[in-house]
Predict the 3D structure of the following.
Amino acid sequence: MPTWMELVKAQLPTAIETLQQYCRQPSVAAQHIGMAETVAMVVDMVKRAGGTARVLDDCGGNPVIYAEFSAGEQGNPNQTLLFYNHYDVQPPEPIDEWTYPPFGAEIHDGKIFARGASDNKGDLTVRLQAIAILQANGGLPCNVKFLIEGEEEIGSPSLPAYLKKYADLFRADACIWEFGGKNIDGRPQMVAGIKGMCYLQLWCRGADVDLHSSNGAIVDNPAWRLVQALASMKSVDNKILVDGFYDDVEPRTPEMIKLAESHPFDVDQMRAQLGLRRPLICGDENPNLHVWYEPTMTICGLEAGYTGEGSKTVLPRRAQAKVDCRLVPHQDPDDILAKVRAHLDKHGFTDVEVTQLNGERAYRSDMNHPFVKLVMETAREAYGVDPILAPTSAGTGPMYPFGEFLGLDLPIVSTGCGWWNSRAHAPDESIRIPDFEQAMLHMVLLMNRMREPIRG
Amino acid sequence: MPTWMELVKAQLPTAIETLQQYCRQPSVAAQHIGMAETVAMVVDMVKRAGGTARVLDDCGGNPVIYAEFSAGEQGNPNQTLLFYNHYDVQPPEPIDEWTYPPFGAEIHDGKIFARGASDNKGDLTVRLQAIAILQANGGLPCNVKFLIEGEEEIGSPSLPAYLKKYADLFRADACIWEFGGKNIDGRPQMVAGIKGMCYLQLWCRGADVDLHSSNGAIVDNPAWRLVQALASMKSVDNKILVDGFYDDVEPRTPEMIKLAESHPFDVDQMRAQLGLRRPLICGDENPNLHVWYEPTMTICGLEAGYTGEGSKTVLPRRAQAKVDCRLVPHQDPDDILAKVRAHLDKHGFTDVEVTQLNGERAYRSDMNHPFVKLVMETAREAYGVDPILAPTSAGTGPMYPFGEFLGLDLPIVSTGCGWWNSRAHAPDESIRIPDFEQAMLHMVLLMNRMREPIRG
C-alpha cells in the first residue's frame, strides 16, 4: 500500500485544479459579489469529496454551509471533528497593485496567486481533498463536519445566530480553525485561541460648520477636545489609563511566560521588514508576552478639518477617531465600552461620543488538551520540522461564539497552508504549492489519528 | 447733479455682473487652479475702470498685479491711497456641503453665493467700481494704487519679495486693506491691524506600510505619538504649554482693556448662530480681549489611517496634524517654530517632525492717525450707523511686510463688503447685495475726501 505522502502527491493535480476553479469565482462579501454562485460551488465540492451539504439561510446574512462526512466502517462513529472555514474573501482593491489578476488563480514560480488563495479558499480545498484521500483509502477514521460561512471578512455578524440555532448540528469533539501558515523560518505556526475586539468610534462635534481658525481665541475646538480625550486614555509609555481596563486580564502564570519566551521572535528582522522607525513598545520584554497576553488600544484612524496640500486655516466643526481594542480572555467588549464612557465622563469629556462598531470576545483553548497535542504531533510528522504553538492569534475571529454555543471546553486549533508572505488582505495574495501539499498531508495524518478517542 | 448714493445705485447692475464674472473664474492658489486666467481677467477689470496695470512676476510665485489710477485735474496729485486685495481664493472643498455651486455666483435671496464672493473678490470689485464712478464724475480726488496678489490664501509667501523690490512703486500715504464686513447688529467693523501667523505641519511616521492592528501590542503607533505630542502642547483648559510661547505678548494696558470692553460682543448670539455646543473658552472675560490680544494654537487638521465607513483594523503608518498659531505684535513666527521644536524634543517627541508652512508677523496701525479717523467718518456717512474699529483683526494677512517695506508708520485700515455670516473659507460663502452697494458708497466717499491732505 502506498504511503499517505504518496497518496497526497497523487491527489495534488486534482487539488490544484479544484482550488484554481474555486479562486476564479469571486466572492466578496463587502461588495455583495458572487455569494450565491460560490455557495453552489462549495456544495458541489463537498459532494465530490463524498459528503452531504445543507445550505442554512434562515438566520440572515449570507448562507452558512453545513457539510457532513460519516466515519467509515473501520472508523470511530463516536468522535467528530469540526472544520471552520469561510467562502467569502476580502475585496481585491487596489487592483492595479496586483502583479497577476486577483481572480485569475495563475501559477507562477510555484505559487498560486489569487484573492482568497490563502484566506481562506486554500484551506477548505486542502481539507476536502484530504477527506477524499481518506475516503478512497479505507474510509474516514471519524465523523467530520464543516461550518463554512460567508461573512468572515465583514466580521461574521450572522454567525452567532446560526451557531445558536444549529448548535446540535455543529456539535463536535474538536475543531480545526480556518487559517495558518509557515513563518519565515519555514516552521508551521498553529494557534489555540484568538484575541477579542472592541472597535470604537469616537466623535467630537463643535460648531455646525467649519469656522475660520481665528475663532480659536474663543471657540472650543473639537479636534483639541478629541486629542485631549484620547491622550487621557493612554500614557506616553503605552499604558492604557481607562479605569478598570485591565481588571479582567488574567495574571501571567509561569507556564504562560515560559511558553512565550520559548517561542521565536526576531525583533530585528521584524523592524527591518516593516521599516519601523521606533523601538518596539514592549521594551526588553519578550514581544510574545504582549502579543499573546496583553490587551491593546490602537488608534486606527483620525480625522478632522483640512488635511490636503498646504495650509487651510479652519477650526474644524468635528473630529473623529477609530480605536481598536484587542481583548484577552475574560474581557467583555460591552464592559470595555462602558469603562471608556465612564473614563471620558470622569475626565470631563462628556462631549466626546463613543460607540462600539463591533465587539467579539477572546477565546483560548486548553493548551494541554490531547487534541492540541495531536495536532502538533501530526504537524511535526507532516512538515518534518517542529511546529510552533501560540496560545492566541494576534488577529481576531468569531471563535468565542463557537465556544459559547458548542461548549467552552471545545479544543480549537488553527492551522493552514499559508506562508509568511501570503499577503492576506493585500495585493498579490498567494500560497506556495509545496505548503499546500504538506498541509494536505497534515490533515490526512490528523484525521487518521482520530480513530482513537482524543479524551481519556 | 445726482448724489453719490444715486450714482452708486446706477452703477450697481454693472458691478454685480462684473463680480459674478470674476467669481465664476476659479482661482485656487493651493490647488494651482486658474491663476493665469484670473490675472488676465483682473488686468482687464483695471483697464475697464480707467487704470493701467503691470503684471509683476519676477520674484517667484503667482504674479502680483500693480494697478495705478492718477488723480484727476481737480484732484490732489501729492496724495496716494493704496488698496490691497488678492485674486486667489480658498479651496471650495467640501463641495457637497454647498447649497449652490461654489463657482456659480448665483444670486438667491439678495445674496451672491460663491467661493471668493466675500474673500476677496467682492472687495476688489467694490473698489474698482467706486473708482469708475469717481472717474466718470469729475475725476479721481487722489492717486490710487492697487497691490493685488495671488497667494494670500496660502500665506503670501512671495509677497514680501515683491514689496521689497517694488517698494517705490507701491509707496503710498495710506492703505485700505482687503476685507471687512458688518457684524450681526448691522454695524460695519473696521480693523487697524492684523494678527500674525505661524502655521505648522506636524508629521509622525511609523512603519513603511499600514500594519494589521494586532501589531498594536508591540509596534509604536504614529497616531498615538502625534496625539500625545499635541496634547502636551495645550492644556485641557486651553493654555498653550510650549515654553516661552507667551514671552513676547505685550501686557494689556488699561487703554487696551477699555477698548475691548467698549466693543460689542454678543456671546449668546454667537453661540446660537454657529451652533456651538460648548461654552466659549475665554470664561467670564470679554471675548474681545482674547480675539484681539491673545495668541492662539488651533488644530486645523488631523489625519491618520482609516476614516471611512465602519471599521478597518489598521495601525497607521503615519499621522499628520496642521496647527495654526495666531500671533500678536512682537511675536516672531520663526521663534515660535523653534520653541515648538524645543518643546517636542524636551518631552521626548523627537520623532515628531514639525515644519512651518507659513509665517507672518502681526501689525497694528496707530489708532489715532487722521486717516483712521477719516475712514471711520466716511463709513458713518455711507452706512448710516456707527462703525466699529478694532485694533486688530482676528484673521491674519501680510500686513507686516507692508509696514516693513513701505514704512512702519503707514496707516492701514481694513474694511469690506462682507457680513457676519459670509462664511469665508467655508461652504456657502456669500455677500449681501445691499452691503455690496454700501461698501461701494463708502469707498467713493473716502476717496472723495482724500483731496485734502490726511497729515497735518
